[in-house]
Each structure stands twice: as C-alpha cells, then as structure tokens.
Automatic annotation (TrEMBL):
UniProt keyword list: Activator, DNA-binding, Transcription, Transcription regulation
PROSITE patterns: HTH_ARAC_FAMILY_1, HTH_ARAC_FAMILY_2
UniProt cross-references to InterPro entries, sorted A to Z: AraC_lig (IPR032783), AraC_XylS_family_regulators (IPR050204), Homeodomain-like_sf (IPR009057), HTH-like (IPR037923), HTH_AraC (IPR018060), HTH_AraC-typ_CS (IPR018062), Tscrpt_reg_AraC-type_HTH (IPR020449)
Name by which UniProt lists this protein: AraC-like DNA-binding protein
Superkingdom, natural source: Bacteria
Protein source organism: Cellulomonas humilata
Domain HTH araC/xylS-type residues, every copy: 215-313
Statement: the UniProt record of this protein carries the keyword Iron-sulfur: no
C-alpha cells in the first residue's frame, strides 16, 4: 500500500472545538414535583443550564421563544446563561425563583427541590455549568436559545450517561461531585454535537470549520493564538494562495482573517486575566505582543475596557462576539 503525503494534516476542526469545550459544575439539583408547578431559573452569566426529565413531562421556555416540551429521556440545554422558566405545563404561574424556594441541600453544590400537589408527577435532573475557553464560547454562540435533544434520538450514549448521572446524584458518595461534573461535561458536549450534526451550514464560523482548508487555518490559530499570524501564514495552513484565502475567509466567516485572529486572542486574554490567573504582562507575552502597552491598546479597542479592569473583575466572561 502506498502512503500518500497530504498537503495538510487531516483534522476534524468541529471535533477539535468540541474537544476543547470545558465546563465546570456550579450547581446541580434534583426536582420531585406533583401537580401544577413552575419555577423561574435566573440568569447565570457565562453559564450553560441543562434540564433532563426522568419521570413525567416538563416544559422549558426562554423569554421570547416558544415552550419546549420534555418527556422522559429528553434534555434541554440553555447555552447562553439566560433566565428561563421550567414548568409542568405552559401558562402555569411561577412559584418564584428556584434559588429562593425551600429545598434540601445535600451539599453546597447540590439540592433536592420538592413540591407537593395534586396531579401528575415529574422528576428532573438540572445543572448549571460555567464555560471556559475562547473556542468554547465561540461554539456556544452558534447555538439557539434552547437546544432540545430528543431522548429517542440521543441513542445509547444519552441513556447510559443519564443513568450514571442519576445514580451519582441520587446516592451521594466520595468524589460524587467530580464524577457528576465529568458526566455533565459529556451530556453538554454530546448535546451540542447532536445539534451540530443536524445543521446544514456553509457560512459563518461553523461553515468555516467544516471547510477542510479554512478549518485547518482556524484550528491552527486556536492551537497557537500567540504565533505571529499573518494572512500569509494562515493561507499556508490552508494550503491556499494568500489572495484566495483572504477572499474566501471573509466571504465565509463574515470578517477579515486578521480581525478574527485578534478576536480569538482577546477571548484567550480574557480567560487568562479572569480571576487574576495571569498578569497583563504575562498575557501580552503569551499572545505575541511586543509590549504590554501595545497589547493593552488592542485589548481595550476590542473589548471596550482595559485588561487591568478585566483582571480585577471576578467572573468576567470575555469580549462580546
């Protein structure tokens, strides 16, 4: 068999974006409710919420959107940190904010919410997860206000992961929160993958990722944001001429290649600066800037605030996309 050297390394840019998706468990809850009920899920900033029905049925509704019905095995993902309603049926009045209702706290990050009433029973598993990483947020920004994964279409992975998650949340054991977070990681990634698989997109960031040549260049930028990128070096990664790459990138992605590079770098910078994890000087050097001053100017131009302010602001979620 003859081995053929390809002009670029075969990669799966969409798969790589999913691979770098990182979530951290903030809070989990189990709901056991009878009869009519509804609760307000408050906005959680740069977080992802998920709801899984294990018994009965429930509805999820984001303001301005239609209610989404969930039956046993279904999962709803609310990817943009937006407040939303969780209901037994559309139109049911809310009992109030979920974090202000009486509930049993089994740990600081896990509770059981019970509601007694007359009517059908529903049981749910819910979670709130924080998201880290520039590529992660770029990926989440593609998603609709609610991602609904039909349990029948989720297949064996969905049933198996839900069974393990339910087991961990129902029977508290040492290390249970760490296991639950990893399982939730899988649920979120698989849900996003299921949504991506159903899309027929040829433009924008997702369209570029699916393009073998543009995807190679974008993946290279995400792997090494501090490399001294130019249109020419990106074109080399894509195995295209500079002019052809520049025109195609702008046409598909909707912005010039170097503008995209700057945006990715600022997302990375915001992650590194958040919670004081790195100094402005360290981040500037990591991202290839000649001086702290030049990096600060670029950061403020792109984000609207200084990097020093970001470093002092707990929970900063990065620049807008």
């Amino acid at each position: 068999m003859t081995v053929v050297d390809l002009p670029w390394t075969p990669i799966d840019p969409v798969g790589e974006a999913l691979h770098h998706l990182r979530v951290t468990g903030v809070f989990y809850s189990r709901t056991e409710a009878d009869g009519p009920w509804a609760v307000d899920m408050p906005a959680f900033g740069d977080c992802v919420s998920f709801h899984v029905v294990t018994v009965g049925e429930a509805w999820v509704q984001v303001e301005g959107g239609p209610p989404v019905r969930l039956v046993p095995g279904d999962l709803a993902l609310v990817p943009h940190g937006r407040g939303h309603l969780l209901l037994s049926a559309p139109g049911v009045p809310s009992l109030g904010r979920v974090d202000e209702l009486p509930q049993e706290f089994l740990s600081p990050n896990y509770s059981v919410l019970r509601h007694e009433g007359s009517g059908s029973r529903v049981e749910l598993i819910c979670g709130v997860l924080s998201v880290d990483g520039a590529a992660s947020r770029l990926l989440l920004d593609l998603l609709p206000s609610v991602v609904h994964v039909d349990g029948r279409q989720g297949g064996a992975w969905m049933a198996a992961t839900l069974a393990l998650t339910t087991e961990e949340l129902t029977h508290a054991r040492p290390g249970g929160e760490a296991v639950t977070t990893r399982l939730a990681d899988i649920l979120v990634i698989q849900s996003i993958r299921a949504w991506l698989d159903a899309q027929e997109v040829t433009t924008g960031w997702l369209g570029a990722l699916r393009d073998p040549q543009l995807g190679a260049a974008i993946t290279a930028v995400h792997r090494e944001p501090g490399r001294p990128w130019t249109v020419a070096t990106m074109a080399h990664e894509a195995v295209m001429s500079r002019s052809a790459f520049s025109a195609r990138f702008t046409e598909v992605v909707g912005e010039p290649a170097m503008q995209y590079v700057t945006r990715v770098r600022m997302h990375v910078a915001a992650d590194r600066l958040g919670y004081g994890r790195a100094t402005v000087r360290e981040v500037a050097a990591e991202l290839g800037y000649d001086s702290e001053a030049s990096f600060s100017r670029a950061y403020k131009r792109e984000v609207g605030v200084s990097p020093g302010r970001t470093r002092r602001a707990p929970g900063w979620s990065g620049p807008p996309v």
